[in-house]
Amino acid sequence: MNALTARIARVRIDGRDLISDIDLAIPECRWTAIVGPNGAGKSTLLRAIAGLQRCDGAVQLAGRALHDWPARERGRQLAWMGQQETGADDLLAQDVVMLGRLPHRPWLAPPTAVDLATVQAAMTATQSWNWRERRLGSLSGGERQRVLLARALAQQAPLTLMDEPLAHLDPPHQADWMALVRARVHSGHTVVSVLHELHLALQADHLVLMADGRIVHTGSPADAGTHDALKRVFGPRLHIAQIEGRWVALPL
Length: 252
Ligand SMILES: Nc1ncnc2c1ncn2[C@@H]1O[C@H](COP(=O)(O)OP(=O)(O)OP(=O)(O)O)[C@@H](O)[C@H]1O
Description:
The protein is α/β, with parallel strands linked by helices. The chain has helices spanning 42-49, 71-77, 93-98, 113-125, 141-154, 171-186, 198-201, 224-234; strands spanning 2-13, 16-27, 31-35, 56-61, 64-65, 78-81, 159-163, 190-194, 206-211, 214-219, 238-243, 246-251.
C-alpha cells in the first residue's frame, strides 16, 4: 500500500520547469528519504506533494485526490515541516507546537487537556520543553528545528513530510531524530524527508534520488544499484562503504 502517489508532468515557474516527469509512490509505514544535489528539485517536489506548490499533475493522499480533502481532514492526515519557515517568530515555542493541534480542535475552541498533554509529550520527545516560554525567534537554529519537529509530531498525522529536518542539528540530536522517525514508522506512521546527510539517508527504508528536476532512481539504500546511481549523480568522489553493518557515504 502507498501512503501517497504523485504523477506530476511539471512544476513550471517563470517559464522554467523546476521538476518534470515525476512518478512517485511513497510506501506506507516506511521512512522515505529524498536526496540529490543542490537545485535538483527536492523541495519543489515535497511542496508539490504537500499541496503547497501548484503543479501540472495529480497527487493522491491515502487513495483520494489531495485537493478533494477538506482542509482540516487533510491536516489530520498530513503533517508538514518546512525549511526556513518564518511568520511565527513572535510566538512562544509552546504556542507554535499548539498550532499542530489546530486540525483536531473545533473552530475557536480553547485547547483541551488532550491538546496540552500532546504538546507537552511532543516537546519532551524533541527535548524542547525547557524553552516552551521562549519566543521562536529567540531560539538557535537547532533549537528552532526541534520546536518545529514537535509541532509536526503534535499533529499526529499518519504521514509526515519534512524538508531538511536535520539542518542545524548536532550529531546527537540527529541520532535522536532518527530514533524518533524509527519509532513513528514502527507505530504505523509514514515519514518522507528531504535530506542532504547521505550517511543518514542511507539508513532510510526507501530512497528517492533526484537530479535536474527528475527522479533518476528509487530503491533500497542497501542495493548496489542505488549506490551506483548515487555515484553517477554525485560523482566518483562519493565513497559508499559499510561500517558496523550500516551503509555510509563519504566525500573523498
Ligand atoms: N520560486 C521559485 N522561482 C524560480 N525558481 C525557483 C523557485 N523555487 C525554486 N526554484 C529553482 O528550482 C530549482 C529547484 O529548487 P529546489 O529548491 O526544489 O531544489 P533542492 O533540490 O531542494 O535544492 P537544495 O538542495 O539546494 O535545497 C532550483 O534551480 C531553484 O533555483
